Amino acid sequence: MNLGDTFRDEGDNPHLRMVIAGPTPNGLAAIANFSSWFDGCDDACVVHQGDHPYLAHDSFVVYQKARLLPVSDIQRLLDTGYCTPHRHLSNELLKRIRDGAILSDFTEEGIRALILDERARGSDL
Fold this sequence. Notes:
Elements: E1 6-9, E2 16-21, E3 28-36, E4 46-47, E5 59-61, E6 67-70, H1 71-79, E7 83-86, H2 91-103, H3 109-120
């Protein structure tokens, strides 16, 4: 699991999820997902068809549901087929998503701090 990796959960309400920070030295990655855009949604990062091959219409990043998860748990979901890997995020889109995570009022402080720390250590994304 690497920064910018994406995967889709195959449950009842599938969404494309992506690694927006990490993995950390202790094996955690920050995961967020796209959801269909609607009037009044968090507009910190709105994305459009063509920004990623999975996106078929305007969507937004749901920072409110972003979580730090053990990479081993994510890998187990991929290994069992509950999640399916998809195309890596472009650097441009990943940067927009991470910029939005810093700006959004809905991002958990731990995830915001992780992104800021990664940037302080030299990440240009």
